[in-house]
Amino acid sequence: MARRTARTWARLTVGATALALLGAGSPIGGATSVAGTALAGCEPDGSSLSAARAKPGSHGEDPNSVTASQAAALDRLLQRRVDRLTRQGRLTNSARLVGRRPYEVTTHVHVITRDDGTGGVTEQQIADQIRVLNQAFAGGRVAGGWSAGTPFRFAVQSVDYTANDAWFDWHLDEDFVDEDAEAKAAKEALHVGTLDDLNIYIAGLGDGLLGYANYPGDGTPLVYDGLVLLNESLPGGAAEPYNLGDTATHEVGHWLGLFHTFENACVAPGDYVADTPYQYDGENIFECIESDNTCRQPGRDPVHNFMSYGDDQCLDRFTVGQSLRMRQSWAAFRYRR
């Protein structure tokens, strides 16, 4: 039996997953990319799609990415929603939200520990994680460049702690396609709020993953909406060099509609954001080599972008186009006030 304690802070859930490898592309040098494979029946508004952040050693394979066709379907759905909102006068040309700016996202944090209470994170780590998120989404000057600002700020409304060995040992199923029964049970028990509430689950995430999240508009049942984080990826955790809190930044980017910068590799339309250069999807995605230029299209690889796979010290920026897409996705799928 799970034991829960709660206090006034934040909670978050994660969506079910669809197995896919990264889409194929044609990098400079003629190497062959990993071919994309789709999970049958996984379509937007039907079943959930999700995206992860993985550690090096996966050879460019991402167990929770979307195929080219799935990404295209998600983008078509987003554009239809944006067009409709624009016709209704609910968006400006700059896709500003109707309401306050910055926009405060109510956040719920669910910490899962072992039965003996070990494996959790402290309230200070949670506070530090929210600070990292707010700094990342505020934008501003970064080393050697600039990060685009967004209206999103994250405010913790509730934090709860649950002691449960089975839930703490958080895994996908044996086919690496979907969450296992225990992971689903955890989210069904802990999720709170609506689509404009951020639910974050923190546990001993396995399968070599640092975190994962579902996309808006993908048909994920509300109870599974949100993201899951490896406990050791929070600031001060043991997952060095992935322990400064930017796994959460990366996953919230997915939750707000962003694909990986290496989505579709060197093949148009890439990640559906015009100002992020194309990036091949091999082992280079884990590197922080500013001179990398792995695709023939203009621009060097966006190695410092939060939606790439570099370590936390490397990742420090969003682009203007990504900020726009996040605002559009929020207005199209999550804004309920």
Quick rundown:
By secondary structure, the protein is an alpha/beta fold. It has helices spanning 68-87, 123-138, 165-168, 181-190, 246-255, 320-334, and strands spanning 3-7, 50-54, 103-113, 140-142, 145-147, 152-163, 197-203, 209-214, 227-230. Helix 1 crosses helix 6.
Strand content: 15-25%
CATH architecture descriptor name: 3-Layer(aba) Sandwich
Number of domains: 1
Query: How helical, in percent, are the residues?
Result: 10-25%
Overall mean pLDDT stands at 81
What composes the largest sheet? 7 strands, mixed
Low-confidence stretches: 1-48
Shape: globular
CATH top level? Alpha Beta
CATH-defined topology: Collagenase (Catalytic Domain)
One letter per element, helices H and strands E, the order comes to: EEHEHEEEHHEEEHH
Helix run count: 6
Which structural class matches the secondary elements? alpha/beta
